[in-house]
Every structure is written in C-alpha cells, then in structure tokens.
Design goal:
alpha/beta, Stationary-phase Survival Protein Sure Homolog, Chain: A, two-stranded antiparallel ribbon, 7 helices
Amino acid sequence: MEILLTNDDGVYAPGLAALRSELASLGNVSLIAPATEQSGVGHSITFLEPLVCKEIFHGDELYGIAVEGSPADCVKLAVAELIGRPVDLVVSGINGGLNAGINVLYSGTVAAAIEGAFFRINSFAVSLEYDPHADFETAAKIAVPLIQKILEKKDSPPRLYNINIPTAAVEQFRGGQTPRVAVVPMGVERYGEHFIRRKDPKGRDYYWATNDPPPQPTDHPTDLTRVAEGYVTITPLMFDLTDVPVLKAMEDWQFSLEPPGCDGS
C-alpha cells in the first residue's frame, strides 16, 4: 500500500513522526508536510508563489519532504508530482489538539484529508486532545489499527474520515484498558465566539479569540460530546457542500432575469 502522510503542525512535529512509525506496518509511507506550522489555515492553497520543497534526512535515511505551503498544497503536490506512484491512502496528523465540531471547517489537518478525498483516495484526519505532555506514540497505536479496520470493513468507494482521540483514551490504552470508540456525526453547535479586547503599547485596540463559550448540550451524541466522555470518535465526512433537499425543492422555481430597458422604459 502506498501511503501519503502529512499534517498541519509542520514536518518536525512529534505527532507526524509517531504516525509515520506506526503506518509503516501498513505499507510504504511517503512523508510530505508543511515546512512550518499551518494550524487553522483551512483549505487554503498557494497560487501566487512557488512551492519550494526540501528533502529532510535523518542520518542517511530520507525522512520526508518539507513544502513551503499549506497542508492542502502538500497533498496536491505529492499526488500530482512528488510521489510518482498511485497513492492508496492519505493520512493527516497526528494533530496536537482536537479537530471536532466546527473546528473541522477551520482545520488544516482535516483540509489535507479532504484534498486526498478530492483525488478519490481513502483519507483520514487524526487529532489528539491538546496536552503539553501529549503521548503521540500511544495515540498512533490507537489510530493506525482503527484506520486498518475501517479500510477492511468499508465499502468500495474511497471515503473521508475524521478521528479524534481524547487524553483519557490514551491513558486507558497505556494502562492496558480498551478505549471506547464511537462513530458519531460532527457537532455543528456554535462556540468560540468570545474575544478579549486589549490595547497594544501604542494604544490601539486588538482582539484575542477564546474558545468559550463551550458548545451547548445536544439531544444526540456528536464528536464533541463523545470526546468529552472519553471516547475515541470516528466521523465520516463529505466535501460536497450541496444541500440536496433544498436543491431539489428549488429545481421547479422559475427564475427570469431581464436586462434594464426590456420593459420599454
């Protein structure tokens, strides 16, 4: 299996190294990641500047390729040019911090997986709850068997999946317990709308985003609620943003646009 590994935390991120090591059991891993951290860039791609690439070596071994671009750039460039062979699997992560709920829409980690799905390749985003002492090695040991199981059980068309791992699950796994896994939808509750207003040394106002208020409880489980309960969550995603029911309702609407002056005035 030909595997493309990337992230949004940069080519030297510990989560990337941990996932590279574990994914080697599934096939040949090509690591192609941003040269610097690209958290929160979403699905941005580079048009107006060249994408400079640099090979990274650990001793005599080629570790990976650093790209002066976004996570989506890395996937697009890797699949189209750098790998030179058909890619069977795209994995993005392990991100330092969860990408659940509406964070999916902002995440460079998820965007890289979405870019893989654009190419009709099975693609996974993997994220670990933020912890200054995050155990990425254990998180990778949780994530890779899940990826393998999904690939074994899924139907034939390529799919896109988002995996989030809470600290509690890592601690359970490390302690010999089996973490609970939940397949749940993405939470779409609004949060992170508060800003702290401060003044810089020149007296100008600036604003710093916070993560509160927290998401409100829902009447059904989501990735946000289950992660908070200590579950590893798996969410199948789609990149087609079409609202199909509304589309069908609008198909019979009559639209008529007339240029100015056609009414005889």
